[in-house]
Amino acid sequence: MLRRLGLPDDLTEFGHRPYHGNRSLWGGVVNVDDFLRRGLGYGWHLDRASFDQWLRDAAVLHGTRLLSPARLQAVAPRPGGGWNLRLIYAGRTVEHTARFVVDASGRHAALAARLGVHRRRCDEMLAIATLVPMCEAGLGTLSLVEATADGWWYAASLPSGMVLVSLMTDHDIARSQKLIRSEVFYKAWATTQELATLVPPPASLPVPSVFPAHTLFSERAAGRGWLSIGDALLALDPLTSSGITGALEDACAATETIRAWLGSVREADRIAAAISYARRADGTLRRYLKERSRLYAAEDRWTDRPFWKRRTPEPPAEAAETSFYQAPTGKF
Ligand SMILES: Cc1cc2nc3c(=O)[nH]c(=O)nc-3n(C[C@H](O)[C@H](O)[C@H](O)COP(=O)(O)OP(=O)(O)OC[C@H]3O[C@@H](n4cnc5c(N)ncnc54)[C@H](O)[C@@H]3O)c2cc1C
Known about the structure:
Bound molecules: flavin-adenine dinucleotide
Helix content: 25-40%
Largest sheet: 7 strands, mixed
Number of strands: 18
Strand content: 25-35%
């Protein structure tokens, strides 16, 4: 993906950490999936803030005018096509016009929400996370995933020298078991098998942070003069570890759509480009939902527990007929 975007693909010199595989305890089996065996090269444990800034800098180098940080305040279609935008930037309100707009605002979907696009939530998962110093035994350059009765744990060493430890569970489970309380969170951590051995819970207890981690998608991927990418389009279960690559792939597909939209004289050609983008998004969502069900079904030790029961449903018969992404219409 990075090469396709014209960027260097060795991120070591930018301070990121190579990541060589996944260790997991899933379905009662400890497994090490070494990327060497896949022959696709390795991945990266990113310093996310610096990676995002690096992408923004690269965009500027290629001629993008960047207003950052900025907040979208209002958006309205212009008569005859395009948009009027009102942003808050550097403490001021600024007005802009655009021929095409892209919603890349993550789970907030700031643009799609203002355009009245309905968002569908598939579950109530959240991540309860903390950072601890790297320890002796450690994870090395592997990530760790460990299933437990009420969710699953994830751990990875970050370039900062800290280890990210996170529990994915559902909102109601977290609330009823008070998992957000540090003493309960660390007690649950201490009862894990692989995680507690490789990354023992520390003696002092920082308060964990909570992040939304539910699957969420927009029912429209594109419309007249706009489209959505990344989490604004489809926010994935972190188990897939593919949110960032997915967002970059969306961006590449969006480029083609925008080029076709702006370059076409005939209205029918523009609409065809937007429909093709919506169809691609529909395919991505269907593949993702199938893969998510397959991954969760591989853990069968707690099928009677709410967290696992909710994730291995029989697919409803009508699901095969549903098109999640509606084709763009004249509405926007
Ligand atoms: C717990 C957890 C673990 C994850 N682990 C992984 C992983 O291991 N690997 C992986 O690839 N992905 C992972 N992800 C997913 C990944 O973080 C996202 O898929 C990715 O960040 C999506 O990128 P994005 O650019 O679409 O959105 P974001 O990264 O959320 O960026 C959105 C941007 O829009 C800006 N914005 C928001 N609202 C407005 C507004 N109103 N006006 C203007 N700007 C706005 C924000 O400030 C931000 O800069 C994980 C997610 C979670 C929750």
